[in-house]
């Protein structure tokens, strides 16, 4: 698959051949769904906690006598049905992470990249570099390229000036190629890869 390479000034800078084994697959929604679910579950903090009846503060004395009142038999006021009592089966800190085989995770990345290529939402940039960290200037350049909602993936490292210029632009994310993930690819309308990023991805999936 051949794709044109563009500069940040919206000029053509040649073309590049994309590997069909990475960018030419038929996207499978089930694999992408499993991967997104895996990522979102793994990022959950799992720090929610509620106190049970043995943990809340309160006296352990019997509320009233067992017999003769005509009311239900109760022990102390820490029972869940009373205000201030413990929570029955409340949440406790735990990990929400689920298992997903490594091969499925790698396949999901290929399918996510292929889905953008198939939808013609994939753009290749010559370089993701600017002379000065000016947000307005970069915003204007991205508008010329038609990028209002995009994930920009640089090479091994993101240029500091480019990262600073882009971080205040809404709906624009910038990542190094090592940080590329399925969820971030799918949550943005367009995927922008530099030539260095493509070379790194092809080396990664060989």
From TrEMBL:
Cellular component terms (Gene Ontology): ribonucleoprotein complex; ribosome
Keyword terms: Ribonucleoprotein, Ribosomal protein, RNA-binding, rRNA-binding
GO biological process, one term: translation
GO MF term set: rRNA binding; structural constituent of ribosome
Top-level taxon of the source organism: Bacteria
Ranges for region Disordered: 65-95
InterPro entries to which the protein is assigned, alphabetical: Ribosomal_uL4 (IPR002136), Ribosomal_uL4-like (IPR013005), Ribosomal_uL4_dom_sf (IPR023574)
Skewed-composition ranges (Basic residues): 65-76
Purpose: Forms part of the polypeptide exit tunnel. One of the primary rRNA binding proteins, this protein initially binds near the 5'-end of the 23S rRNA. It is important during the early stages of 50S assembly. It makes multiple contacts with different domains of the 23S rRNA in the assembled 50S subunit and ribosome.
HAMAP family per record: Ribosomal_uL4_B (MF_01328_B)
Subunit and interaction comment: Part of the 50S ribosomal subunit.
Family of this protein: Belongs to the universal ribosomal protein uL4 family.
Protein name: Large ribosomal subunit protein uL4
Source species taxonomy: Bacteria, Pseudomonadati, Pseudomonadota, Alphaproteobacteria, Hyphomicrobiales
Gene name for this UniProt entry: rplD
């Amino acid at each position: 698959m051949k794709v044109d390479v563009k500069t940040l000034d919206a000029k053509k800078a040649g073309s590049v051949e994309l590997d069909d084994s990475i960018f030419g697959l038929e996207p499978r929604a089930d694999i992408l769904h499993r991967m997104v679910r895996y990522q979102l579950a793994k990022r959950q903090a799992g720090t929610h906690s509620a106190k049970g009846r043995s943990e809340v503060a309160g006296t352990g004395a019997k509320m009233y006598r067992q017999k003769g009142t005509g009311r239900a038999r109760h022990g102390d006021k820490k029972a869940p049905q009373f205000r201030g009592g413990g929570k029955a089966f409340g949440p406790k800190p735990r990990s929400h992470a689920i298992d997903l085989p490594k091969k499925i995770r790698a396949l999901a990345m290929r399918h996510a990249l292929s889905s953008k290529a198939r939808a013609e939402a994939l753009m290749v940039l010559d370089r993701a570099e600017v002379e000065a960290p000016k947000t307005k200037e970069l915003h204007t350049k991205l508008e010329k390229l038609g990028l209002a909602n995009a994930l920009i993936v640089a090479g091994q490292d993101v240029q500091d000036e480019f990262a600073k210029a882009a971080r205040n632009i809404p709906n624009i994310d910038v990542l190094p190629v090592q940080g590329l993930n399925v969820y971030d690819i799918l949550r943005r309308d367009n995927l922008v890869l530099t030539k260095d990023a493509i070379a790194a991805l092809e080396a990664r999936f060989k």
